[in-house]
Amino acid sequence: MNNLKVAIIEDEVPAARLLHSMLRRLRPAWEVMVLPGSVEEAVQWFAENPHPDLLFLDIQLSDGDSFNFLTSARPSSVIIFTTAYDQYAIRAFTVNSVDYILKPVDEKRLLEAIVKYETLVAANTSPENGYLDVILDSLRHREKAYRTRFLIAGGERFRPLEVSDVAYFYSENKITFAVTYTGQEHIVDLSLNKLVEQLDPDQFFRANRQVLLCVKAISHVEPYFNGRIVVFVKPSYKSQIIISEEKITAFKLWLNF
Known about the structure:
- This protein is an alpha/beta fold.
- The protein is 31% helix and 31% strand.
- It has a five-stranded parallel beta sheet.
- The model has no long low-confidence stretch (mean pLDDT 84).
- Keywords: DNA-binding, Phosphoprotein.
- InterPro entries: CheY-like_superfamily, LytR-like, LytTR_DNA-bd_dom, Sig_transdc_resp-reg_receiver.
- This is DNA-binding LytR/AlgR family response regulator.
- Residues 150-257 form the HTH LytTR-type domain.
């Protein structure tokens, strides 16, 4: 398998780099490339290039999810899914040669998926006809799954950050920060708009353009000028979190006022 061509489609740069380095370490003879992490660009690449033998595909991409990509690109590659979502939400995709790996990727788990693929190839076994349609059907009828963790950089290493540890997110100078309940701040490689799409709306509310907060972080709320309210959180945010008059009804419903 020295000439094996492997591609990674992953919208989070740290996660893509980590997976790439692990694959190069575990299988140095493989030709591993990182493709664009958006549906549009990935579909275009597959239309213009020979399909790789093996594809590591993130469930959630920057401009959509893997359902959109698979429907348009119809890759001939064997697929191993990577996901930050709960394993039960992705278990349905484990058909034939398909496997899934929870992010942040563990090297031992990655090796298991690689060996599974190599065993398939050594046995000269191909995915059953229509297996891609089985995956698409699973994606089409899946229950909504929400992100449970992030991969964050710490020096030259990466480590997981659980969503349950995050009190709120805020955006500053086009950079998104996650603030934990212990007051630590971490850069997250996703915009607030993308976070709103990927996080449980029962737990997180978009207070304004700058802040996305978790219900557990709220200590109390107070009336503010012109029919607005101000939200106080723990740990405290560096400025006031104002809920506009237009959002108050939705905010109260979210809090079950």
